[in-house]
Structures
1.
Amino acid sequence: MASAIPGYRYGDPGLPPSPLSEKDFADLKKSLLFGADDIAALRKAHDVVKDQVEAILDVWYGFVGANPHLLAYFSDPETGKPVGAYLDAVRKRFGQWIVDTCRADFGAQWLAWQDEIGRRHHRTGKNRTDGVRAAPHIPMRHLLALVLPISATMKPFLANKGHSAAEVEAMHAAWTKAVLMQAILWCRHYTNEGDF
């Protein structure tokens, strides 16, 4: 899944592997009640949302833009003004993240990529991929809190292609579990050694 996005990419052979063991990841999925039905529902969701990505991003960017405390993480700390090029670069990655989540290919490369995404939100990696001057760290509380708006706002898009209410519910439940699973994985960088 190579792209022109700077820094490591999903599937990049130089990307360090996730320190999470296969068993630990399997146990996390069990704790989230995430199983084969969810993978099938996400893959169905892929076909539903793949041509709606920009509209989904419009909703999410509208939410961030309407909340100054969130927009601050994409803004120059001195001027308080949003960094347009940074917002644009993140938007491209965010769109790819929607598609990747719905592909539901949760193997070792994907797991390594989640660790990299977490690093890019944490002070150890924030702003480095894009070489920008923006807020240097996104607190873990916001990383976890955004699971709700990113999950809740997806449901209308999942209902746009004429699937039954039960199918929409299954896709939405799978999406929500997958978003929470990723947010949990991203939080590893925010914990002390041995606490994750």
2.
Amino acid sequence: MILGIIPARYASSRFPGKPLVDIQGTSMLQRVYEQAKKAKKLSKVTVATDDERIAEHVRSFGGEVIMTEPNHPSGTDRCFECLQKTEGKFTYVINIQGDEPFINPEQIDEIASGCDGTAELITQMIAADSHEVLFDMGEVKIVLNDNKEAMYFSRMVIPFIKGVEQKDWHKHHQYYRHVGLYAYRADILERITRLMPSKLEKAESLEQLRWVEAGYKIKCVETKFDSHCIDTPEDIEKVLKLMGKV
């Protein structure tokens, strides 16, 4: 059984109250929830929040919600508390970003297909096939081994292609960038929440490096779906245009 969890906080330095923002008549959080419910491989979907305003909103549209502690350092920690408080026996948890209102249910099913009982952690990647995307330091790149497991995540471009101009690197190596959907095997989720922040994590500001540095294996599943996150109020119009909604 796979539990889909949508962590949702009200507080946000760039966009306070973001989960409740109205997008063409429906809140962002409700849109994410309804998309997640369409995924065929999830046994249950719930919202994990620390704010009663969000919890009340979820109940108003008939969604399931779990109240969690306010001081979690990450969505991963909030997912673990939610798992502990949710009835049922779940083998995997999928952390569904609460700021992607148009996430495709097929994308969730893609990562769920990797939940085979042996994979410890699973995430998604998409081909980086242009110089502009590859050298965008806001995009996280993945270095893979032959088993499609992550060896490293970086905002820099790795590997360096010796003897080739940077503008042509993507033509000489298949680079992938990270798509931030995660699946955790339930027992591994418990273990990684006990880890202290690592040196590599602090250097790159990437939580998943903590798990890699501790020796956990992250399976990477390729997706054809790009992620369209909303981080600021201005992003709403951009995403609506990208999705052909305006």
3.
Amino acid sequence: MRLRIGTFNVENLLTRQRFGGEGRNDDRRGGKDGAKGGVKSGDTAAALSLFHFPHADQREAVEKSLAVALEDDKRQMTALAMAEGAADIWCLQEVDSLASLQAFFANYVHRLSDHRFGHFAVESGNDRRGIEVAFAARRDLVAPEGVSVTSHAAATFADLDVHDRALAEMGIAPHDRVFNRDCLMVELNWQRRDLTLFLCHLKSMNNGSDDGRSATLPVRRAEALAITRLVKRHFGQGWREANWIVAGDFNGFRYGLGAGARREDEGPSGIEPLLDRFAIDPMDSLPEHERWTHFRRWWSEGEGRLREQHMPLDRVLLSPAIAAANPAPEVDIIRRGQPYRVPLDPRAPDRSIAALSSTADRYPRVGWDRPKASDHCPVVVGIDLPER
């Protein structure tokens, strides 16, 4: 049975909007982890700063109209990236509700894709901004009774035996919830085959502050270890022989790519429990310069210089059984929805605006910074699913 499984952080697919110049909301452990609305206030603020509005209600009306137009452009590109990925199953991050997920598929994905999707699932997680992990599968892939969804949003550090001294020093107690969002378990059953998916979106590195990586590592490590516990508890001693996949935005990596595709060892990332004698990452089969799903360029105060990095944040990790049955899995990373400021080939020496803006391998109407499909690239892995 051939399947294509994709993961994609779709960047703030939200039904709600908040306008104005407020800053981003903090997450429950004090990290500034993402945008507060479907369209960030910064996306509309630049254009609105050029105009004078005598009355606040006029400004709000124009801002709402601009936000809707920007969102429509963006979601066409998000859907294009998903159509190009041609996955049978999507594991998505940053979706706020079942309503927004279904509306997005009905009005964008289904207008572009060769497939029709159903079996949608979104559960309420722990993120204060309401960005959840979500699931969608081809409508004809499995019968409704063959799909079972379990949330682990209420699981605590103590429940999964992952509390340690580093967490205690951060003020995190054993009874606190371990997952910043959720680990959504989706079980799919056919007559002679089954597949269990663990969908996740781990703690971020605080949007690139110099100490963000190390400051958030204990939380991310606990989440990764908690996922391994869930897999082993669910399957018992036979966990290595079972068909399971862990997919999502892991917000962690050991090796990134600097300018010129130079390999940069960033040290421990927190996701090591998932990769160290546990799951297999098919992205490792790609040439090193292709192992990235997110790009960031920023000023490092600590180093006093401008830095850039291509990072492998998003992954589809295979169980040992699935990996053994697929020694050469297909791995597709869809990058045509990235804005022009992103160098699609990390090896390219020229980072000038002239060089980047003339790279034509993009969807129509992609902009320099926006609109874009997302700030992440979808990853799709093709496998043959073993029988039970």
